[in-house]
Amino acid sequence: MEAIQLFVPTFRIEECLAEIRECLERGWTGLGYKTVEFEDAWKEYTGLPHAHFLNSATSALHLAIRLLKERDGWQDGDEVITTPLTFVSTNHVLLHENLHPVFADVDESLCLDPDSVAKRITDKTRAVMFVGLGGNIGRLPEIVRLCRRHKLRLILDAAHMAGSRWHGVHVGGEADVACFSFQAVKNLPTADSGMICFADGDLDADVRKWTWLGINKDTYSRTISQGAYKWYYEVEHAGFKYHGNSIMAALGLVGLKYLDQDNAYRRQLAAWYEAELNGAAGLSVVPVTTGCESSRHLFQIRVAHRDEVMVALNGFQIFPGVHYRDNTSYPMYAAAHGSCPQAHRASEEIISLPMHIGLQHRDVLRVCQAVRSAVAESRGQQRRRSA
Ligand SMILES: Cc1ncc(COP(=O)(O)O)c(C=O)c1O
User: Which domains are seen in the chain, by residue range?
Assistant: First the structure.
């Protein structure tokens, strides 16, 4: 029986090689050239006013926090409200900038619950970090209103949201800054890269100075703007080496051409899953907000005795994932353990079913059949144990 994996990226190999070949022939693989083309293509695609290409979404999230902290004069120990149901990048960057992550609970969409966020606001709160889990916007519009009312910055961790739209408009513009991931298994896979999109043009100009060690003119602009390479530059900050490179941008440029088509197919896969699993005994499907055209990075279900069901699925050669473990279960965030009961419960029940464009209808049927038997078997075992 052939194994069905959670994620398998698809690359249009000949087109990718042609884009990469251009870089190699021109002798330009680093910052500039294709990175500039990709930034322009991303702005055109999303409608966002600014975009800067980086080596990961983790770098993007770090710089989002660093620049907002600097711009608004936040103090060490100030608070950012965030979710415990995320990849740890989201929360680590707060610690990197000596900010205090305050965990709020999630709702049935597995995204931050605005009611819980509202309860966590204090006079030390400076921002909300919202994760669009699996590509879904959850109740983001309510979070936007809450942030405006309390004059809080909003950072959108849009790692899963390449191609997600809300009533036809690409996500990102509602936040002060949106951070996208083009990591190896995301909807727009490169190998590792990301995009930071500030709403404010001054912050976009600033962030460019932070991503190549604080050097005020990158090698590419020094080469193209003056015709001949000029060696002189100033160093204005102790910046980071976070910029993207032309090889990753080459992969991104090809992937972007297919993103809408690929995401439409992901939504088709999700519809097939839903047709099979909605109403099935012993499980529920994590809902997507009405009006959200989700990128469908994930298709998640909830079951009791999740670990047992996962093991049974592996027996059918099906290898799903879990997004994510409640971050307050990790020793480093343990001080907040118990503060988000909905997220904790979800983190023990969720399964991300295989979701990638190499899957066909028959694969979805096979996964669903296996899910139904694994859940039935686990429920039978529970009944026998309690008899
Ligand atoms: C929700 C979330 N945030 C941030 C990241 C970090 O993205 P990257 O791997 O591009 O740094 C990821 C990646 O898995 C993620 O899933």
Answer: 9-255 (3.40.640.10), 259-386 (3.90.1150.10)
Pairing of strands 125-131, 153-158: parallel
The average confidence (pLDDT) of the chain is 96
Phi/psi at 300 (5° precision): -115, 140
Tokens, residue 289: 């907000």
59 CA: nearest ligand 1 atom? 11
Please measure the distance between the N-terminal and C-terminal CA atoms of the chain and give it in whole angstroms: 35
The residue nearest atom 9 of ligand 1, judged by CA position, is 183
Report the nearest atom of ligand 1 relative to the CA of 61.
4
Predicted TM-score of the model (pTM): 0.97
List of E strands, 192-294: 194-198, 283-285, 292-293
pLDDT digits (tens, 9 = 90+) for 318-355: 999 999 999 999 999 999 999 999 999 999 999 999 99
Q: What does each C-alpha distance from 297 to 262, 279, 292, 323, 341 come to in angstroms?
A: 10, 22, 13, 11, 25
Residues with CB under 6 A from ligand 1: 56-58, 86-87, 89-90, 131, 157, 159-160, 181, 183, 194
Give CA torsion, residues 241, 125, 92, 184, to 10 deg: -70
1 band by pLDDT with thresholds 50, 70 and 90: confident
Nearest C-alpha neighbor of 250 from the set 3, 7, 18 = 18
